[in-house]
Amino acid sequence: MDLIVGPLIVVIALVGLVALLGHHGGIRLARFLRRVGFALTVLFGGFFGLFLIGDTLSDPGGWKGVGLVALWLIPLSALCLLAWFRPGAARFVFAPLVAAMASISIWFAVAPDAWRAFENRNGPIRAVFLFALALALALWGLRMTLTAGVMLLVLGIVPIAVSSLGHGGMVSLGAASSAPVITGLCYLASTYEARRRTPPAAGAPPSEHPQAA
Fold first, then answer.
1. What letter would DSSP give residue 26?
2. Which of 55, 141, 156, 192 could form a disulfide with 180 if both were Cys (CB 3.0 to 4.6 A apart)?
3. Among candidate residues 138, 129, 52, the one with its CA nearest the CA of residue 96
4. In the 8-state DSSP scheme, what is residue 57?
5. Where are the alpha helices (DSSP H) in 87-144?
6. Extents of the domains making up the chain
7. Is 168 left (phi over 0), alpha (psi -120 to 50) or beta?
8. Quick check: 142 and 38 in contact, CB under 8 A?
9. How far apart are CA 101 and CA 106, in angstroms?
């Protein structure tokens, strides 16, 4: 429960800020929310990533530690490049990855003891997966804000909700889930504000297109 108090305070503060600035809203407020959401994930991801790299290079250390860091850093870099340069095609990669994270969470709820034993031997696999995917989704959200916002909420909420059925998850997973939830809410609020101020042309169906950051 303590893991969600901090994020809730941040969300309440953001809601209050939006309410205060709402009458000056429009595209500027939508862009502000989008950038705040992205900055929060990058800030958290930077701390988490540096801690993860330092811990891995200390234990097990050596070339094995470098290899373990490369196992998540290289895919993360590839996902970020895809998110930025091919935002339209990225949905076909991100959607299965988010579904995979949800499936792993369900698996944990079914066999929590086996997963804990596995992660005690190999490290916080779920937290690292969630952290790397959240960073890439946050970058993608600068281009495809609505879809990324929905995926970030699923990515942040489902693992904690399902893991609680398995009598609790690791603290690192709960911490890693906070940033995607906050960023997802910021992205959805950004989309709502942009669409509220700029309604689509008559007869035009709602859609999402890549946009500038």
1. S
2. 156
3. 129
4. I
5. 87-110, 112-122, 125-140
6. 10-196
7. left
8. yes
9. 9
Cβ within 8 Å of residue 37, ≥6 positions away: 138, 141, 149, 182, 183, 184, 185, 186, 187, 190
Q: Tell me the pTM.
A: 0.82
Question: How distant, in Å, are the alpha carbons of 27, 135, 137 from that of 116?
Answer: 46, 25, 27
Reading the block at residue 99, the tokens are: 């579904």
Angstrom distance (rounded) from CA 132 to CA 134:
5
- 118 CB neighbour count, 10 Å cutoff: 14
d(CA 148, CA 155): 10
- What does each of the 213 residues of the chain score in pLDDT, given as a tens digit? 444 444 555 555 555 555 555 555 567 888 888 988 899 899 988 888 898 888 888 878 788 889 989 999 999 999 999 999 999 999 999 999 999 998 988 888 788 888 888 888 887 888 889 989 999 999 999 999 999 999 999 998 887 777 666 555 455 566 667 889 889 989 998 888 887 765 555 444 455 667 766
Token digits for 112? Answer: 């929590």
Tell which residue, 187, 186, 177, has the closest CA to residue 45. 177
Kindly report whether the peptide bond that precedes residue 75 is cis, defined as omega within 30 degrees of 0.
no
> Could you tell me the two tokens for 109?
């709820």
Tokens of 204: 């035009």
Degrees to nearest 5, angle at CA 141 with 203 and 150: 75
Amino acid residing at 16: G
Residue whose entry in the numeric block shows the structure tokens 């190999």: 122
- In the chain, the amino acid numbered 21 is L
